[in-house]
Amino acid sequence: MKITAITTQEYRWPRAKPITNGLHTYTHVDFAVVRIETDQGVVGTGLGNGSPIWRASVATLARNQAGDTVLRFLRTLLVYRRHATGLYARVGY
Length: 93
Known about the structure:
- By secondary structure, the protein is α+β, with helices and mostly antiparallel strands.
- The protein is about 30% helix and about 40% strand.
- It has a single domain, classed as Enolase-like, domain 1 (2-Layer Sandwich).
- A three-stranded antiparallel sheet has the order 1-2-3.
């Protein structure tokens, strides 16, 4: 099973009430979806925050992993997970 496409969709909307933590004030909700498709018709969906780091990580994965097997891709995600904050990968259930 090989990866044929990795695409993203990003969403942003204003919060009803801004959230502040003393350092930052968050006025909007940022939400992103990544979709991975295979040559056998299997589709996987993941969620993210749409931050610049998240976008760069997904773009790098899409560029480097398209055409790879799913197992190789999952192994790469697990390495990213160990070394990058804000990028999560879950294998299984």
